[in-house]
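Purpose: get a first structural picture of the assembly so the mutagenesis plan has something to point at.
Setup: two entries, given in the order below. No constraints added.
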Amino acid sequence: MTSEPRAFLAIDHGSATSSATLIGRVGAAWRLIGTLAVPAAAEPEAAIDLLGRRVHAADRTLAERLGLGSGGRRIDGLPRLEVRSRPPGRLVVVAGSERTLAGLMAAAGRGGWLATGASMETADPMAMSRLLLATDVAGILAGSSDPPRPDERGTIRELAALVAAVAERRPGLPIVLAGAMAEGLAAFGDVADRPGEIVLGPPPAPGPASSVGGPLADLLLELALPVDDPRRTVGAATQAIADVLDRRVEAIALGHDAGVRAWATPSAGGQEGVPRVAVVADAAVAPNDPDDAAVDGVLVWSTVPTDRHRLRDGLRELRIAPWAGAAGDGSALRMAAARAALVRLVAATPERASEPPPDIVVASGGVWSSVPAPTVTLALADVIRRPGASQVALDHARLLATLGAIPDPGERRALIADLVDDLLAPLGTVIMPAGLRAGRSAGGLTLHAGGTTTEVGLVPGGLELVDLAPGETGTAEFRFRDTVRLATRGRHFAVDVAGGLGGLLVDLRDIPLRLPDRADRRRDLLQAWQRALWAGSSE
Amino acid sequence: MTGSADMSDMDREIGLVGLRRIIDDHVEVRFRLEPGDRSLVAVGETVVPGAPIIERLRDPQLQELAVPGSAQPQPGGRVSEGELLFEWRGRWRIAGGDLTETVESPVAGIVREVRQGGAVTVRTGGRAVTGIVALGGPTRGQLRLATGRDGELRSGGLDVGFAGAILVVGSRIDAETLTRARAMGIRGVIVSGLASKERRDFVASEARQHAALHRLSPFAVLVLDGAVRRPLSSPVAAVFDALVGAEVAIVTDPPMLVFDVPGVIPPPAPAGHVRVRSGEHAGREGTWAGMLGLRRFPGGVQLDAARVRLPDGSVIAVPLGDLERFG
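Result (structure tokens, whole complex):
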């Protein structure tokens, strides 16, 4: 007998669904034994009980060895590793000018906050006071560039006085003074005794949109979410996977309240790697009160005939009960909403477009749970358009956030090293060349895998799907007629590929993707692309 | 023995269905207090229905004023001209105005918090049925049933006899009927579903009405379920049946129907009672008959499903996520 646990439960209490996963010691390694997801409004204990019974029914010997007892009923006594999502807080962002406000909003938008903003250029102090004093405000960001630009020089002192007055009335609110706004600190009096922090932060990143992620966004993320928040722990898990596999890894997690994009390169030189994380509340699958832009963003990806009003109704229903209505047209709505959320997530992290593509993309989130796994690959390829080759995997048991919450990096890495093959369901490999010219043929592909050779003709503008089972690896040789870009420029490439549930997907469509303006043609095209990967999608 | 074990498993399994509370006790409700508005109550005071609690500025304007230091001005304080916002270059910016209107409490309770520029929070002594959104302003009236639980109220179905009442209208209503109801002196409407288009049209109409010099009595729409048509659930309808003729209130933050009627205890939902919230069987109710496991549904999706026995004895397979139960 040993006091070391032979099994434990990893539980992710999400905003839409909760998942419970049983992880057990089998031989010398930790393995994923079983998993179950239920609506967030259900009782987690009922899910755990059912999970125990299912494991027991599937393998009684293993269940008893793991300590689940007769019928799997002792599962509720196992140690638990739990994370719980909370809705993002509202941050009011104020600035002297519209230009600075845009930079601050971009930083706040990827820092885990629901951001609402106003500048002295367009809002009077009354409107600004109304905004800052609202009962749902959880934090304030007041900022300016450093040194202040001419268009904000005349207003930031008045703005500091306004924010200081609000700070006096709402002593518990945390306040960030960014850039030259810090010069107004004196207006806040003695801040040492104030219950809410007053933090001096860097100015918004200047220059092009690609520099929106920076120290200010990182600071706001620290303030928005505790270290063990599942949206932040996705970053730690991504780093651990990168270290374990020695690959560049990017995780895309779409949630009910926010989208997360985390990317990491393997640690090197004895230094712990630091993952980059963007938590974008605007990239929630179902926005709280969908405006016209949000509805239109989903409408673009809709594969079923609908209009704005019905789609808005559908999005509201999805917001109210995200676990419900997943069959029939509901599945098409979810996939369209997921693609629209991905678009917003990609727009909030523009720096990724100029960085090399990751070796592995990990998709996570309850929105993917009900659709056929290969469809996830297509959804990612539809939106994240970058030349290169990446393997795609699905965090099917939603373990990224829970395992990322293990505080010790070494322990986290060791556990993920054991579990990595179980927690990542391989979806396949996506190869996306850029610079193809229109024509009947772009060249050919020869796939060498499992002792066989497959020849495939490449047609510009289309998708080529090649069977490559999970666990299989091979080499794809490309011979293009013209020079294309696939990591580097050239005509002949040999790419190592790995199989998955969706096989090898060669995406010869435009970068960026161009869709027809006419809704019926766009729908037909989207359906045609989807049909090969989603049997029964048009039922 | 096996039978009792199975029964016990079934009892546990129903916990997999999302739980929706029918009635909440002792809720806290908030009444918006914007810069310039004045609270007429203080923390700890008791309010009764109809008691004035807020003096609201109709068209607040920003003013500048020199306030002597002897008045010990501070942000949120008041002078005769209005509410002090902040000091700037030796003068105070003030939210003030001439026209005011009084907001009355639709509920009885104790004032828990007054945040100038934020909200007045009242802890009610009554109980509440929660909705997903409430449009309009806090209101109070006598509860009446206008339709059955799956009915739809059209503008032609409104009657002057409904004036002063809060109507339960079943599954759906349109914006035209809502605006007409407001004009006829009806105080509020409770509906299961309100489509986004109707919601937008009503909100726009409400904004126009607020801008008018002559305002009508407060009116609110409480939406219980969502944006699509579905009948009121029978456990919630049973609460409304028990409240017919009673004075009730609709508050907007949080969105709920508040009532303080001693002795109104709705009958508990039968054991294992579930309602199909979405999907092809939306609105139907029945009894939990156990888990089925993964099943393939239209659209080519695989979902965990459960068996539901309908009142006619037939059994249907429903995705677990489409079900809800009441407690």
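The CA atoms of residues 352 and 482 of chain A lie 27 Å apart.
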